[in-house]
Each structure stands twice: as C-alpha cells, then as structure tokens.
Amino acid sequence: MSDTSDSDTASEYAVVDPRNIPSFSSLFSPYSNKFGIDGKYLSMRFVDTINLIEMDDFVETNFLINRTYKCHFNQKLTLLMEASLHGHVKIVRELFNRFNVTVDSIGNVVHFGSLVKGATALWCAAGIGCIEIVKILVENGANVNFLTETKSSPLRAACYLGDLNTVEYLVEHGADVNITNIYNSTCLMIASHNNHKEIVEYLLIKGADINKQTKCGSTAMHFAAQANNLEIAKLLIAFNAQQLKNEQSLTPILVAAERTHHNFVYFLIDESRLHLTREEKIEAEELLGASFLNDKDHYDFNQGYDILLRAMKRRYEEHPIINKKVNKTVECYNNKVECQTVQELLDIKDDDKAIHFESLIIRERILGENNPDLLQSIIYRGAVYADEHDFTPCVLLWSHALKIAKHNKHSICKDLIRFTQVFCQMIKNNVTIKLLDLKNILQFACNELITIKKILPDVDCFSSEKSEYYSNMKSTLGLIIITSIALLQNGNKDDPMVGDLMKVIVEINKLELKTDKGETLLHLCLNYDTNVDNIFTTGICCFPNFLAMKLLVHCGANVDAVDNSKNTPLHYIGKFITDFPHIPHNSDYLDTRKMVMELLNAGAHTDFVNKLGVCPHTGYLSTLFNLTNNIPRSLKCLSASVLRYRCPKKYYRDQLPKKLVQFTNLH
Ligand SMILES: [Zn+2]
Q1: How far apart are CA 57 and CA 62, in angstroms?
Q2: Are residues 167 and 159 in contact, defined by beta-carbon separation less than 8 angstroms?
Q3: Distance 667 CA to ligand 1 centre (A)
Q4: Could you tell me the distance, in angstroms and rounded to a whole number, from the CA of residue 626 to the centre of ligand 1?
Q5: Which residues partner with 219 through β-bridges?
Q6: Distance from the alpha carbon of residue 636 to the mean position of ligand 1, in angstroms
Q7: Which residue spans within 359-400 are E strands per DSSP?
Q8: 56 φψ region: left (φ > 0), alpha (ψ -120 to 50), beta (else)
Q9: Each residue of 352-405: pLDDT tens digit?
Q10: 353, 404, 401, 352: which is closest to 380 by C-alpha?
Q11: What is the per-residue pLDDT across 127-144, written as a single tens digit (0 to 9) for each?
C-alpha cells in the first residue's frame, strides 16, 4: 500500500535546501488533469485550497489548512485527511513542516464503499495501509485510539485492510488491541473475517481477547467459520478459543455447516481439543448435509444425501443411540416427520422431493424455527418448484418464509414482488389461485405499508424505506390486478373468502397511498406508464387496467383524488386515449368507455381542472363520450366554477370554509 515513488525520493527530499522549499504545486499538477500524483484522485477543493495557501496570505493560511470541506460522496475532509486517504506522503510531510496542522481533526470519508463518519487522518492512513503517513501522524501526536462515530479505531481500519506493518506499528505505539466498535466487534474478529492470518496471530500474541462476543454473540471463531478460513480456525483453537453460541444458539461449527463449508466442519469434528459431544458432531453433519441439499450455489444431492446417511448411522448404529428431537410438523414441509431410522432414510433415497423436505425439516430443527438463516433455502426450494410449474408447494414455502422474515422484522419488499410474480405465472398457466393465499399476502402488504408509512415523514428522499414503499405500492397494485382476475377463475366465484378479501382492499384504500408524484393506486392503475416488473408480470399486470380499477372503486377508492398536477383518474383515461388513439379501446382490460362509466357511476367530477387548465368535461373525453349532454353538472360544481373564474380569489378565499375553498379550487 505504500507509495514507492514517495519513499524512493524521501531521502533526496530531506536534503533540499531550506531556502528553496518546493511549492505544493510542484508536488502535483492540479490543472493538467483531475488526478494528483500517480493518478490518485484529489478533489478540486483540495487543489483550490493548496493554491490559496501558495498565494502566501498568512492571515488565512491557518484557517485554510485546518478547515473541513465537502467533496464527492458526502465526504467531509481536511487537507491532512485527504492527503492521508490517498497516500500522499510528501504532502502530509510538508503540511507538518510548514504549518500548524491540527492532527486529530475529524471528518467523513468513504472507505471500501461506505461512508465512515468521525474519522481522523490517522484512521484514513491506517485504512489504506500507508505506514509512512501513519508514522508521520503518530510522531506529530495523533491519538492512536481515536474512535469514529461507530467506534472504529485506526487499528481496526488496518486490521480490516490487512496491513501487518501498520498493525504492528500502531500496537507498538499504544493502540489498544481490545477496543470494540459499537457492535462489540473486535479487531481480532475483523481480521478473522477478512482472512488476515498473520494479523490474527499477531493480535493473539499481543493479548487480544479471543472469546469476546459481538452484540449478536459471535466470536472470532464464528467469523473464521463464516469466511471458511481453516488456517485461522487452527490458530484460534491453538490459542484455546471456546466454542460459544451466538444469539441464534449456533456454535462456529454449525455456522460453517449452514454455509456448506465441508472441510471446515470435518476438521472441527475431528479436533479433539474442542471436546465436542457426539450429538454436537451429529447435528453439525446433519446440518451440513441438509444445507448441501438446499443451497442455491452449492447444491449437491449426492454429497448431501451421503452426509445425512452417515449422520443417521452415527445416531442409531453407535451406542448409546441418540434419538432425534422431533419438531412439530409444518404444512409447507408436507406435514412430514423426519426419518427416525437408517432404513427410513434409505427408503426415500430415490425420492428427490422427500429428501428435499427431509433436509428442510432438519435445517429448521437445528437452526431454530424463526432463524433468518432459514430464509434463503426455503425461498430457493420454492423457486425450484415455481420453475417446474408446481405452484402449490411454492406458495406454501414462500408463505412460510414470509412469516419468518416478518418475525425477524426483515423487509418483505422482495417477498411481495416474488408473490406477485408467481401469481402471474399461475394465471398464465390457468392455475386457480386460492383466495385465502391472496388475502393473506395482501394483508401482509397492507401491514407493511402501514408500518413504512408511519416512518416516511422522517426519512430522506433517497432512503431505502422510500423506495421500498413505492415498490410495495406497485406490488400491492399487482396483487389487486391478480385478485380481479382470480375472482373470475373457476371455483372462486362463490368462495366465502371473497368478502374478507374485499375488506383488505378497503383497508388498503383507506391508507390513501401516494407516490412521489401524488398518484394513488387508482391513478397508477389507469396510467399506461405503470409497470410492476418488466419480466414475470407482463401480460397480466397491464395498464390501464379496467378490472382492477373496477375492484378498487368498488372497495372505496377515491375517484376524485388528484395527483401533484391536479389530474383526476378521468384525466388519466383522457391522456391514454389521446396518446394512443389507434389502440382498440374495447378489450376486457382496455375498455376505456367502461372505465369512464365506472368512474362516473361512482360520482367522479367531470369538471376538475388540472394544472394545464384541462378538465374532462370540456376536453377530449367530452367529445368522445358526449359528457356535456349526458352528465349534467351539479349546481354546486357550477357555483364553484363561477366563483373560481368570475371572482377574485381573495374574495372567496376568506369568506368560505376551508373545505369549500379546496372544492372550489379543484374546478
Ligand atoms: Zn365538480
């Protein structure tokens, strides 16, 4: 990580005649390109500041030297931090030689793709492993144990990167090897996770606490297991690492088994110093085998089955016999009970489906019924069924995953998209969708929207909550379209579930959901630009959509809702007709006449004026549907237009109740 050209010239630099100190601009060429020495990026603010300093205005110099300035990706830097972050040894040295630099100023820096708040120059230099700069900073009094906002120390930054020289230097100069960050994670853990064996060894020699646990209960050994690093595991065992449980009750060997780290698992099984019990070893093998049978990336049927069989033999053919703890049965696993003997397992050897369920049940028994680690394998198995057009087990498995996700307060945004997609596939394949399934998923969507809507006012516009909210809105609309079709499917018409399903849609309408453009679900449903996803829902989730619109209106959607440009749903139909005059407007989904009639029957105003001054009553819709003759305007609407267009606003604004003013302004 060190800058070789800098170190090569360092000695030469030291003998420069002090009367002939080079200018900063001779250290890089700011105007030739945006890149400083050796192509490393320096912000224009850095260059500007240096140029101001070069102008020798001593009044401003100290201020300029130590001020923080903002630059790309929300970073906040001082000159010293930016130079340290990019490994500019000469500049750092010159700053100290010539000015009164505050060594521990703090700012925000991007490191390995994330924004680190409250970092010092030493943290920056340690994080890129620039030992020369680290030395200059420490020699100039930098605090080696200064912590960022998340309590990351410079030593942690060096351990993350894996630069042993920097790690050694910092520890020799007082860095505390046992400082933890806000998650209680230690330097030893980060080095173990990032596969830096030499650093792990060094930290252990220097007294790092080997059995410390994060807030989630993980130890360095758990991280080595996650990263599948056997060499580090051996080191940790040599230093007597205990096999502790994390908050999911998983020991390191189970963490490795869940991730199909075969060699790691068998090494621990054979390692006598760990004193694992026979049952712990059997469970690790069972989890390993079961994971091979349900892992998207490491799926291996034969290996998985062989390991399960071996574990079964250890259970029932060695003495004493260790019986399985039988869990309650779960519907999505076919209500199956795990095999209890070697023979039972041999009997299902050629039954892929039975083996897959067997392994899902094993995973749930060992990992625990609400462990989020279960999710990936359940979703994967469901997806395999969906690909085979075997939709019933898919819906059951995904519903099970949805409950586990919700239990762990995980976002269910992707689950909702997934369900919308699979339901569309079912419709395309003429498979009847159970209304109960639809009702349950819609209820999940509704509850999720309620939760996110509450926190929405407090988040900024680029937040993940906001994009999830819009995504959930679209999935919900997709589900409503699916409902409108499912209600017409065979066997669903007289289902007593219809009423419950409607109630959920009524509840959703009451939420008055709006996009950033102010569109309600009804607007989205009539907007030809809407798309739910571009792949699996095409052909089913088409817009504008008459059936879904009818269902929304039937369930209480506000037919007079206006978007940010004051367009009503009628305006959206008008726009569709004008923009696509040659499309036949009379199919089941695209029948614009039926759409207009539906809205008019629900009492939609034909005379709301949008920001462009267009209202359906006088515009294009009127000519098509003869609105002027067929739909007499009500007296209150006429009065509203008279007020709005014949009276000065200030007159009626103060004379009328607020509600009437709003009503008038819509006309
Ligand atoms: Zn009106």
Answers
A1: 10
A2: yes
A3: 6
A4: 17
A5: none
A6: 7
A7: none
A8: left
A9: 999 999 999 999 999 998 999 999 999 999 999 999 999 999 999 999 999 999
A10: 401
A11: 999 999 999 999 999 999
CA of 568 to the centre of ligand 1 (A): 11
Question: Secondary structure of 382-404 in the HEC alphabet?
Answer: HHHHHHCCCHHHHHHHHHHHHHH
* Residue 667 · residue 609 · CB < 8 Å: yes
Amino acid identity for residue 292 in this structure? F
For the chain, which domains are there?
36-176 (1.25.40.20), 633-666 (no CATH)
**Token pair for 64:** 């300029």
Region of residue 222 (left: phi > 0; alpha: psi -120 to 50; beta: else): alpha
Separation of CA 605 and ligand 1 centre (Å) = 5
Sheet strand arrangement including 69-71: 69-71, 75-77, 107-111, 114-119
Instruction: List all residues 6 or more positions away from 170 whose beta carbon is below 8 Å from its beta carbon.
Output: 126, 134, 138, 144, 154, 155, 158
- Ligand 1 centre to CA of 307 (Å) is 73
How far is residue 109's CA from residue 609's CA, in Å, rounded to a whole number? 50
- 624, amino acid identity: L
Number of helices followed by number of strands (H, E) in the chain: 34, 4
Q: Which residue has the tokens 């440009």?
A: 565
3-state secondary structure (DSSP) of residue 35: strand
pTM listed for this prediction: 0.81
Cβ atoms 530, 477 nearer than 8 A: yes
